Amino acid sequence: MKDKPRYVQQIQRGGRMRWRYNPPQDAVDAGIVPRTYLSDRKETAFNEAERFNRTLDAWRDETMAETMEQKSVNDPVTVNQLILSYQKSLDYQKLKEETKKIYSYQLGLINLFELKGRMLGSYQINKLTQPMCQQVYESLCQRGIPFANRVLAAVRKVYSWGAKFGHVERNPWKDMDTYAEESRKVVWSHDHVQQYLQTAYSDFGTRSLGLIVHMAYEWAQRVGDMRELTWDSIDLANGKLNLIQSKRRAQVKIPISDDLLAVLRQQYDDFGWQTYVAPNVNAREANGFKPYSVYSLSHAARRLIKKAGLPAELRISDLRRTATTEMVEAGVGMAQIMSVTGHANPQSVKPYMKNTLTSATHACTLRSAHRQEVHIHD
């Protein structure tokens, strides 16, 4: 399925669904692109929007280059100014809205970080030294190494973008000493999953939270893809999932079990009139409901895990690992596992191949059966 272009909205008007192009106000004010309704035909509407976006992006690149060029001549660029310029760039605009929110939060932390009595955002970008950046990183690690590494990745991206305009002479964030994140190995038991689903499905308000977990577990998919799954990826008539994964754009086609299919059909009866399979019923928008955000899903799932009386160490992001580990323990071949998970490289699946009692028992059983078969023929 063709991805919906940026700034395209689906709006109900006059009893029918229309496609509308809703670009940023500054581009409209400058007369670069209009805010307008598009063709009623989806493919034509998307092509129109993509043409508008190419015009808008070219204008942004030209404007940004002029702004940064003037800045380099008249005044040194600060960290804050570099971040603001990046957030107006084509590189940033191409990101998914959820990714923009995450970057905005992370870069805001960098801007407001106090270093030697000054906000980091007020420092000139070429006056920051590696020891200063190392101090920032070490401080962020107090909130967790994974958190610090993600903030570091965001600010590195900004500096790399600034290097394209010649404003960054060196990137002090690049060759820092960082801490490796400990590989997470937690898996859910089947009973844990069932306990969670029983709790979630017992309340209409948390049904979507249950469905996201149900789909992620059964299909061994990332929770993020299930959070934003749309009905056009579900073939209810033939009981199949047709998904293009968001991370590497791998396409997977997976059968839907009878139990999950029954839940999906009920969900379609209640929510099939809007876009998302498992929407956040507390977040309405013009055409229905919004999907859960990364943060709202995480918080809501943690509350439900607690309500279900499950171990606090469990996270719903563990479900892809759990499902893949179960396939490994069941003796499913590597190629078949990859056809479900969407992995392109067997090396990516190897972390799931743990030495467990279930795996060892399965291996010994197969060996014993083979030995007996050979003995019979001998």
Could you characterize what this model shows?
The protein is mainly alpha-helical and 378 residues long. It is built from 16 helices and ten strands. The strands form four sheets. It has a three-stranded antiparallel beta sheet, covered by helices on one side. It has a three-stranded antiparallel beta sheet with strand order 6-7-8. A two-stranded antiparallel ribbon has the order 4-5. Helix 8 (190-201) packs antiparallel against helix 9 (207-219). The protein starts with 7 loop residues before the first strand and ends with a helix. The mean pLDDT is 86.
Task: Offer a quick outline of the entry.
By secondary structure, the protein is mostly helical.
Give the distance, in angstroms, between the N- and C-terminal Cα atoms: 56 Å
Spatially, the strands of the biggest sheet line up as 1-2-3
SS class: mainly alpha
Overall average residue pLDDT: 86
Number of helices: 16
Can you tell me the overall shape? globular
Q: Give a short account of the largest sheet.
A: 3 strands, antiparallel
Helix content: 40-55%
Element string (H = helix, E = strand): EEHEHHHHEEHHHHHEEEHEEHHHHH
Tell me the β content.
5-15%
Total strand segments: 10
Low-confidence stretches: none
Q: Taking Cα atoms only, what radius of gyration do you get, to the nearest Å?
A: 25 Å
Features:
378 residues; mainly alpha; 3-stranded antiparallel sheet
Task: Detail the topology: elements first, then pairings.
Layout: E1 8-13, E2 16-21, H1 25-29, E3 36-37, H2 42-74, H3 79-86, H4 90-93, H5 97-112, E4 114-115, E5 118-119, H6 130-140, H7 145-163, H8 190-201, H9 207-219, H10 223-227, E6 234-235, E7 240-244, E8 251-255, H11 258-271, E9 284-285, E10 288-289, H12 294-307, H13 319-329, H14 334-341, H15 346-349, H16 357-377
Antiparallel strand pairs: 1-2, 2-3, 4-5, 6-7, 7-8, 9-10
Helix pairs in contact: 5-7, 6-7, 8-9, 9-13
